[in-house]
Amino acid sequence: MAEYDVIIIGAGPGGYVCAIRCAQLGLKTACVEGRETLGGTCLNVGCIPSKAMLHASELYHEATTNFTKMGLMGQSPSVDLPKMVDYKQETVNSNTGGIEFLFKKNKVDWIKGYGSIPEAGKVKVGDDTHTAKHIVIATGSEAASLPGVEVDEKVVVTSTGALELKKVPNKMVVIGGGVIGLELGSVYSRLGAEVTVIEYQDAIIPGADGEIQKNFLKLLKKQGIKFELGAAVSGTEVKKNKATVSYKSRKDDSEHQIDADIVLLATGRRPYTENLGLDALGVEMDRGMIKTDAHWATNVKGIYAIGDVIAGPMLAHKAEDEGMAVAETIAGQKGHVNYGVIPGVIYTHPEVANVGKTEEQLKQEGRKYKVGKFPFMGNARAKSHFAGDGFVKMIVDAETDRILGAHVIGPMAGDLIHEVCVAMEFGAAAEDLARTCHAHPTFSEAMREAALACGDGAIHA
Ligand code: NAI
């Protein structure tokens, strides 16, 4: 039993960042985590391992498609999936080990085990009860279930099982055309699986800019991924390590079935708040999420919540920002998160990235806007990399030229988007970005060209 200023429950990107910031601000801090390693879903079974698999499969694809075009001849590589999974695990280990090092460096105590809150000011882990003036819940999320679909993590898998497959499936069915489905579907498609994505809506990545949705779908189809849109999966049946997926067309109610060696369930995630004791404490909830005020405080004094357990996009970086901001708030500073400037990235090839408003949202708000677009085909660097697919779309206020949003599909989109994030944080106009010198030849010139297209016109389009 020990006394702390702050105890954070959960060591994912929200929790561990919050813990480090609390310690840096002079608070005696502990973080409770029951997993063998720190880093939560993101580092252990989410963002980081999937990026390793995306990187390896992209290089394989590059080697088998573009190498000979560049005069790189010789034997094409073959896929050894268990070895690729080992590489993925090494990447995970070095990252989770890094957080352990940072905890030691910043003097954050790692309390091993799963915590609950018997009363405000107390956190129970195993037989020990620790006291803390402030408690931050950062317990994240888990894959949402779908009626009729029983996950066994062998044939019917979530993203966790999909990162541990023993061999590349011949046929893979992905339920859900959202971020997880398209990222992991891309990995196995590139490694040789026949991938079919079944999506309930009539478009992939619901909520994204319409033009991006259409272009992205076209590019993924060109890569060989099949799509059944406007189709609701009603169940899966597994026999002798093979699955049959049943789905219904929403257009005409027709029933269909498709066979698969592996089925990936990727229909969203839900907040993970079980066994914390929130009911008994009287913590207010809203549709499964913990309700917080603008300063991440719950209705119970001294208890805060951040990340996937509260409202907003379930993104590691959103949780990180909240983690830092709530630490600052607890330390008596003015923690703040600008929810209008949270980028979203899909790490497929090409990458897809967005920040701010979509055209559809602005139309709904009745706001007058202008669009500046630039295709990567007009970007010299992209052409030399066989990466001319995609475009940058910048949306600005029609009268003031202030940037309201940007949507990018193309090479390095996930990095390029941050130029716009910084611009938006400073309330910049497209002209500000257009008048900023960009090194040539870089992919970032496409961002400048889209900004130029909001004014007198892009140069290379
Ligand atoms: P998602 O919400 O992005 O997509 C789920 C999709 O499943 C939706 O398009 C939905 O219409 C569809 N769906 C739902 N029920 C269905 C049914 N019965 N039949 C067919 N389709 C159905 O959820 P996803 O991909 O599972 O990701 C979960 C969370 O993790 C998201 O919040 C995502 O942002 C986050 N994440 C973010 C990543 C990134 O930033 N790169 C990577 C991976 C996950």
UniProtKB/TrEMBL annotation:
Reaction equations catalysed: N(6)-[(R)-dihydrolipoyl]-L-lysyl-[protein] + NAD(+) = N(6)-[(R)-lipoyl]-L-lysyl-[protein] + NADH + H(+)
Lineage start: Bacteria, Pseudomonadati, Pseudomonadota, Alphaproteobacteria, Rhodobacterales
Coiled coil: none
Positions contributing to NAD(+) binding: G176, G177, G178, V179, I180, G181, L182, E183, E199, G268
Binding of FAD, residues: K51, G115, T139, G140, S141, D308, M314, L315, A316, H317
Protein family according to the UniProt entry: Belongs to the class-I pyridine nucleotide-disulfide oxidoreductase family.
Active-site residues, Swiss-Prot/TrEMBL: H440
Domain Pyridine nucleotide-disulphide oxidoreductase dimerisation span(s) in chain numbering: 342-451
Required co-factors: FAD
Disulfide bonds: C42-C47
Protein name: Dihydrolipoyl dehydrogenase
Broad enzyme group: oxidoreductase
Enzyme Commission number, as recorded: 1.8.1.4
GO molecular function: dihydrolipoyl dehydrogenase (NADH) activity; flavin adenine dinucleotide binding
Stored PANTHER family: DIHYDROLIPOYL DEHYDROGENASE, MITOCHONDRIAL (PTHR22912:SF151), DISULFIDE OXIDOREDUCTASE (PTHR22912)
GO cellular component: cytoplasm
Single GO biological process annotation from the record: 2-oxoglutarate metabolic process
Note accompanying the cofactor annotation: Binds 1 FAD per subunit.
Any Pfam family hit: Pyr_redox_2
Note: The active site is a redox-active disulfide bond.
Organism for this UniProt entry: Pontivivens nitratireducens
